[in-house]
Amino acid sequence: MNKKLIALAVAGALGAPLVASADTSGVTLFGRVQAEYSSTKIDQTPGQGGSTDSTNYRQEVIGDNGVQSRWGLKIHEDLGNGLSAIAQVEYAFSTGAGSSETVREQWVGLHSKSWGEIKVGRTQSPFKDTYGGATLDPFVATALQARGSGGAMYAPANGFGAGGFVDHSIRYNSPDFGGFTASLLLVPSDATQAEGTTGQGNVGGKGGTNNYQIAGKYKFGKVGEVFAGYSKDDASDAQKAVAAAAGNNFRTAKDENVWRIGGKVTFGDFSFGGQYDDINNARSGNGGATCGQGPIQGGGDTGGSTTQCNTQLNVNGDGNIWFVSAQYKLGKTTLIAQGGHTTADAVTNETTGVQTAAKRKASNYTLGAKYSFSKRTTVFGGYQKVNVSGANSYNLGNNTGTGTATLANQPDRSTWTIGLRHDF
Questions:
Q1: Helix, strand, or coil here: 278?
Q2: Alpha helix stretches (DSSP H) within 125-216
């Protein structure tokens, strides 16, 4: 059955008044369903985490804890003279966990062949979907992903990196000018509900409305591309007034600034890509104190969580992250070798000058493959090793979903996974 007819049926069931037309206007249903069998082992304090192994913490899970599965509606209306109305509504879910749906992109906008497009609502950032980020990682949103616990990709909770989405945003994408494109993301929200009072969470808020991200890219035909960008997330009044929560660093929240440069090249069946991020005054996610999206992050399943805090930057600290990926196509199979490195600089107490968060480094090594049965159905798998030096201790839920497990000072981890994905 035609996907547009299915979309109309779904929208009709939801009470949306839609009318099919003879032109290019309409609604398209799209989505993805993914499930993995993953095994993750974390080196930790003996006897912790409910593990019978006295030196290691291991979990094996069947599900979609990277929350790759999703469904949504793409809406398009031809307004004439090269102008179109566009919109998207999208939700994520986790197979195997029975968890509730979570919101992904939800925006409305205009598209023009001459001046580009503008989206307003909850969008992805340029650093995620166009200028590096998730576009460079073939294992994104799987147990082998580079972001979060992978320790090799900038993924803050404010959505400005390779993880999450940006609330209260306006995004502009330029048309192609002889191979050059650019994007601008603005978050001018001056609302108290937008601020994170502990230095975490959403971008925006009272006194912190000068938030934006700008990026540009030049494509050399089919050979490759280079890109660069800059991102700024102002600290709100509430964030400036509250000392950093993680570790009681007592360091006032300052504006987060990120510089990015990267690119990718293709030679026949071989491709290579990478990026480098320099981060100042990091505050959230891979730029701060909250735990990252781990190889097994949970996805709403409280019994399956091995999220890793030690691959993050120190809250309100500086650091850098680099990532490289090499791929080789062999018929329907793509062989993948990639990895990266995160350096989190030390943080000191502003009043006493005493170091409150030590310098930390995390290295990522990943080997795997993807096999395409068709354009829509893919099986994938591989192995990832993350090594951490100078790590802190964190409490995480154990493998029964109750209690806590204190990680050792060197919580290295190894992950195996095999999964199946179908797009529709």
A1: strand
A2: 126-129
Helix (H) or strand (E) holding 6: helix 3-13
Residues 6 or more apart from 375 whose CB is under 8 A from it?
423
Amino acid sitting at position 273: G
Count of residues for the chain?
424
How far apart (Å, rounded) are the C-alpha atoms in residues 12 and 26? Answer: 13
Instruction: Walk me through the domains of the chain, giving residue ranges and CATH numbers.
Output: 32-70+125-164+190-423 (2.40.160)
How far is 308 from 316, CA to CA, in rounded Å?
Answer: 18
How many whole angstroms separate alpha carbon 196 and alpha carbon 31? 31
Q: Please, are residues 65 and 3 in contact by the beta-carbon 8 Å criterion? A: no
9/407 Cα distance (integer angstroms): 50
Quick one: DSSP state of residue 241? H
pLDDT tens string, the chain, 424 residues long: the values are 555 554 544 545 444 444 444 356 899 999 999 999 999 887 765 544 444 554 456 778 888 877 889 999 999 999 999 999 999 999 998 887 766 678 999 999 999 999 999 999 999 999 999 999 999 999 998 989 998 778 899 988 788 998 889 989 999 999 999 999 999 999 998 877 666 554 455 687 788 788 999 999 999 988 999 999 999 998 888 777 765 444 445 567 788 999 999 999 999 999 999 999 999 988 765 555 455 544 455 555 555 556 667 788 887 889 999 999 999 999 999 999 999 999 999 888 777 778 877 888 999 999 999 999 999 999 999 999 999 888 766 554 443 333 444 555 557 889 999 999 999 9
**Strand, coil or helix: what is 133?**
helix
The structure's pTM equals 0.86
* Contact (CB, 8 A) for 290 and 254: no
Q: Are 39 and 58 in contact (CB under 8 A)?
A: yes
Residue 88: strand pairing partners: 74, 107
DSSP annotation string for 10-78: HHHHTT------SSS-EEEEEEEEEEEEEEEEEE-STTGGG-SSSSEEEEEEEE-TT---EEEEEEEEE
Structure tokens at 2: 């035609």
Residue 342 contacts residue 146 (beta carbons within 8 Å): no
Give me Rg for the CA atoms of the chain.
22
Residues 213, 228: contact at Cβ < 8 Å?
Answer: no
